[in-house]
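Box 3.1 A note on notation
Throughout this textbook, protein chains are presented in two layers. The first layer is the amino acid sequence; the second is a token string describing backbone geometry. Keep the layers aligned when reading.
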Amino acid sequence: MSAATLERNALDAASHVPTVVNCYALFDKFFPACGLLDYTEGIYHGDSTLAYEQAQLDQIRYVLDEVRCTAGTRILDVGCGNGSLLDEVRRRGAAGVGITVSPEQVALCRRRGLDARLLDYKDIGCELTHQFDAVVANGPVEHFVQPSDAAKGDADRIYSHMFETFHRMIDPSSPVRRLINTTIYFIRNPRPDALLKSPWRYRWGSDNFHYAWLARSFGGFYPAMGQLERCAGSRFEMLKSVDGTVDYHLTSEEWLRRIHAALRTRTGLAIFLNSLPFVVRHPRQTLTMLFTMLVTESWNWQFRTDDPPTRLLRQTWRYCA
């Protein structure tokens, strides 16, 4: 199947997950203009004064070190974003292929000279089977199940298929054979059907209020603690799980600070003009996302306090034959 055909198929598939695709389309109008190219947590090493850019680089280096990425290593980056991890893969002399459902992200990666493809992980064909030493899923897993999927009881099936696909991508003869994911988990688990209802049905500030805004804005339903280990089955064995919730809290607060700062300057006008065509096409999701990020601050809420309702875990897995 040609690359052009694969991309047409990806665009068709993207029509079934418009919330996720549109989320990143809007992000790519806002975030780079605010000096924010990455949509994952940084690693602050317990130092909240560490520069944001250094924290992001340290996170990427951690992820690649965990999958033993050195010269010649073949990496599949699932949900490659704007290519920062792929760029570090290239710097190490390794070979990286990124996939994403966002056309804007593919275009930006390609402008950086990176191998990025418009492709949903569920549609990876046999052409990539056994072609990689390691698979990286740095942040996309929380989009793979939607509230409607969870309400139908399909979440385990979807995650099992995810692990099956990642397993198929790894070369069984490779000496590396690693998988790493960074994923947000529910600690206070909502009922899936609650997220299908309007946030205004719930008390302002309640868990369901925030979770419903998040689902409408970003698209996704997080796994429960232990769910991925169960769904990995005999394909992968977890080697390490590191809690990065505080890191995501610090990262998200910096995102919010920079966005507020940009909107108070001429950059804010530039962002508005750059976003206008998207806003005209998708007014409802634009307003929903801006309300969620800047008014309810639901994204930041999920990592705040000493007892946050979610947890960010970095998990390293060993391929099982």
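Residues 3-319 form a domain with the Rossmann fold fold (CATH 3.40.50.150). The two ends are 28 Å apart (CA to CA).
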